[in-house]
Amino acid sequence: MMAGGVAVLAAASLSGCASNLPQSTPTSVTGTDRAVVCAALGEDGAEALGPRALADAVEAAAESLGADSRTASGPKAATSLADAGCTLIIAADQSLTADLIAVADEHPDVDVALLGGALSGPQGEDYRRDNAAAVDLRLSEAAYLAGYAAAGMTTTGTLGVVGGTDDALTQGAMDGFAQGVDAYNRSKGTSIRVLGWDPLALSGALASTADGVEAAAAEMIAEGADIIMPVAGEASAGAFSALAASGNPLARVITTGATTTDLRAGQAVAADGDAQSAGSAQSGETAQSGPAPQSGDEAGSDRSDATAQSGVGPREEAQADDDFSQDYLDRVGVPVLTGIVTRLDEIVADLAERSIRGEIGPDPIVYSTADGRVHLAGFADAAALMSPELTSDLTALRERIDSGDLIVATAFDLADADRK
Fold first, then answer.
1. Taking phi first (over 0 means left), then psi (-120 to 50 degrees means alpha), and beta for anything else, what does residue 121 get?
2. Residue 261 within any structural domain of the chain
3. Residue 205 forms part of a structural domain
């Protein structure tokens, strides 16, 4: 384990996010006189999904639904958006939880949703209202597959993971990655190490700035890590810099902040101006799923509906859709092994439609690999370096996760979430 366990650095200010910026599509949506879908953003940019990704997803979803959209940042972003007429406010930064709850209490006609975290009252009690929802994003499932794949492809026997903010979404992904490595070790009798995460203490290396992430990643590289997964939103760029400076031509990164438009299919469809087709074209997931012994719990929970939507199929049938675009790879700037993709545009559109129907709360809403809203990207050129056994393992694991035969459970999942 990396010395020092948890290293939380000072939050960085978020630039480029103006408060209450209205978009230019005034219209109505079926079921309402006017829907206004809004993004409440934190200020440090190190949350797992990244504020720009959420803002872009809200704008795209609102446009596809014929709604208005607005964005605001800061500790009272949700309040300012409610006052500005928003009908649905979505946040991914758990520091905004109290503000979201205040809005739900004071504006019963406004829906709120928190991505990746529980809505809790001042004493830690569950907060349940019909206009408020905790959204459980199962990044841990894709991270589990990423950890298994990384364990099978490391040339040094050492991997690294570094997070951005001290929240459930970030640490759930870090824990899922470590569980995937553990599954590989148990299946193959190996002893691949993971730096940056302690599965017993359930804590790890955290840094809220790109410089902090770079320093943590550089330390891991110095200890032998050749594949690193940063879960730090826009601050993940620090890990890219550390890998670039390592001089190791075999070093790889596993990215975690990618969205639909970062995939080849997403960019191809976006060029045609058809955002809805982008979601459809990419619903065929890669078969990066795998087998065998694992640290996830066995369970027979019914996920047949979600599985039917995920379009599980052979990797060769989905590779073109699920590989990253060249533009995305150029922006990362270092070799990418694979990455966790969150289809935020589809998630936001689904939340907006639920809001229009009056179906936001009070129960948690789950998005996972089974419904395709979270998945592991293709391996592109790295696929040629994968053994047939590893490819087969990943295919079997993916199918087991999607069917519910393998549950990737972490201490950071939302309690009692419906996994269907």
1. beta
2. yes
3. yes
Q: Is 196 left (phi over 0), alpha (psi -120 to 50) or beta?
A: left
At a CB cut-off of 8 Å and minimum separation 6, what does 216 contact? 2, 7, 162, 196, 205, 207, 238
Our measurement of the distance from residue 397's CA atom to the centroid of its chain's CA atoms, rounded to an integer in Å, reads 19
Position 18 in a domain: no
Q: Which domain holds residue 321?
A: 139-343+368-407
Q: 285-336: per-residue pLDDT in tens?
A: 333 333 333 344 433 333 333 332 233 333 343 444 589 999 999 999 999 9
The CATH number linked to 172 is: 3.40.50.2300
The total domain count for the chain is: 1
**Residue 37 backbone phi and psi in degrees, to 5:** -95, 130
Tell me how far apart the alpha carbons of residues 348 and 88 are, in angstroms, rounded to a whole number. 10
- The span from the CA of 67 to the CA of 118, in Å, is 27
Residues 300, 404: Cα–Cα separation, whole Å: 6
> What's the half-sphere exposure (Cβ side, CA atoms, 13 Å) at 129?
21
Q: Residue 181: in which H helix or E strand, if any?
A: helix 168-188
- The DSSP annotation for 43-98 comes to SSS-STT-HHHHHHHHHHHHHHHT-EEEEEESTTHHHHHHHTT-SEEEE--GGGHH
For residue 329, being part of any structural domain is answered with: yes
> Which is it for the CA torsion 91, 95, 101, 107, positive or negative?
negative
Neighbour tally for 32: CB within 10 Å = 14
Inter-axis angle of helices 51-65 and 344-357, nearest 10: 50
How many Å apart are CA 100 and CA 114, to the nearest integer?
A: 8
> Per-residue pLDDT averaged across 341-349, rounded?
94
pTM above 0.85, yes or no: no
**Cα separation of 327 and 331, whole Å?**
6
